[in-house]
Design a protein that fits this description.
Order of helices and strands: EHEHEHEEHEHEEHHEHH
Number of strands: 9
Strand content: 5-15%
CATH architecture: 3-Layer(aba) Sandwich
Shape: globular
Number of helices: 9
Mean pLDDT: 95
Radius of gyration: 20 Å
Number of domains: 1
Low-confidence stretches: none
Length: 281
C-alpha cells in the first residue's frame, strides 16, 4: 500500500531527496517548508501526490494546525521525516544566547512539536513511523559545533524515551544518524557565531571546514538516503538508530568503545558512592 509521508524541510537537501524517493515509489508526500513557493518544482514534477504546505516548525500552534490539516487532506500520515534544521558553527563561548535558542527551536523543539502533533493521528490509525533526522553529531561531538551537537543529543534522548512510550500503539521511532552528505548544511544554511581571537589557533581548521569551502564536496549522496530509509520502514523490526555513511559507521563504534573503556577504568570509584548494602538478618 502506498504510504503518506509528512516531510519537514522538504525544499532542499536530505528532505527534498527523500521526498523525491518517496514520490518515485508511488507514495504521497505532505511537503512542508518555510515558503511554500520553494516546493513548486516538487508539485510540477509529481502533481497531486504532493501536498505543499508552508510551515515554520518553531511555531507550535502552526505545527498542530498544519498536521491536522495534512491528516485531513491526505487521509492519514504513515511516516514523518523530522528533517527541518540547520547548523550553528562556533565555540561554546562564542555562540550568542539568541543563536543557541534559535538552534534548539528548530533542531529540537521543532521536531518535538511535529512529533507531539502527529502522535494522536498515528494512535487513531493504529500505527506509524517517526524518522527523526539526527546526525553523527548526536552520537559524538565536534569542536566548533557544540550547540549543534547539543541539539541533536537532546533529540536523541527524547526520541529514545518516546520509542518506549509509543511502542504499544504500533508506532515506531528511528533516529537517522547521518554523516556528511552533499547538501547546503555547511554552506548558506549554516549560521556562524562571531569568532573570538583567543580561539583563532585552536579552531582554525574547524572554522575553515565549516566556512562553506567544502559545501557539496561531502562523500554522502542524498539521493541514496531515501532508498536506505525504505529498507528501515519495510523491516520487520526497524532499528531505533541507523547510521548513514561510511564516516558515521566507522566513527560511532570507536566513540562508544572509548566511553566503555573510560567507564571500566573508573568503575571502582563509581561504586564508592552508594550507601552500604543492608546486612542480611
Amino acid at each position: 500500500m502506498p504510504r503518506v509521508w509528512l516531510v519537514t524541510g522538504a525544499s532542499r537537501g536530505l528532505g527534498r531527496a527523500v521526498a523525491e524517493t518517496a514520490l518515485a515509489h508511488g507514495d504521497t508526500v505532505v511537503a512542508t517548508a518555510r515558503t511554500v513557493a520553494s516546493l513548486d518544482a516538487l508539485v510540477t514534477g509529481h502533481g497531486e501526490r504532493v501536498v505543499p504546505m508552508a510551515l515554520d516548525v518553531t511555531d507550535r500552534a502552526a505545527v498542530f494546525s498544519v498536521v491536522a490539516e495534512a491528516a485531513e487532506r491526505a487521509g492519514r500520515i504513515d511516516v514523518v521525516l523530522n528533517n527541518a534544521g540547520h547548523g550553528l558553527a562556533g565555540a561554546v563561548e562564542e555562540v550568542s544566547e539568541q543563536q543557541i535558542r534559535d538552534q534548539f527551536d528548530v533542531n529540537f523543539f521543532g521536531a518535538l512539536w511535529v512529533t507531539q502533533a502527529v502522535l494522536p493521528v498515528m494512535r487513531r490509525q493504529g500505527g506509524g513511523h517517526l524518522l527523526q533526522m539526527s546526525s553523527i553529531a548526536g552520537v559524538t561531538t565536534y569542536p566548533n559545533l557544540g550547540a549543534y551537537c547539543a541539539s541533536k543529543w537532546a533529540l536523541e534522548a527524547a526520541s529514545e524515551a518516546l520509542a518506549q512510550e509509543v511502542a504499544g500503539f504500533g508506532i515506531k521511532v528511528t533516529l537517522v544518524e547521518a554523516g556528511e552528505f552533499r547538501t547546503q548544511w555547511s554552506g548558506d544554511s549554516m549560521v556562524r557565531a562571531t569568532p573570538k581571537a583567543v580561539y583563532d589557533t585552536v579552531l582554525a581548521k574547524r572554522r575553515h571546514g565549516l566556512s562553506g569551502a567544502y559545501a557539496h564536496l561531502q562523500p554522502g549522496d542524498p539521493a541514496k538516503v531515501g532508498a536506505a530509509l525504505f529498507e528501515v520502514l519495510d523491516a520487520e523490526k526497524p532499528p531505533l538508530r541507523i547510521l548513514l555513511g561510511n564516516g558515521a559507521s566507522d566513527l560511532a563504534p570507536t566513540v562508544l568503545r572509548e566511553r566503555l573503556a573510560v567507564w571500566e577504568e573508573w568503575d571502582a570509584l563509581a561504586r564508592t558512592t552508594d550507601f552500604p548494602p543492608r546486612a542480611t538478618p
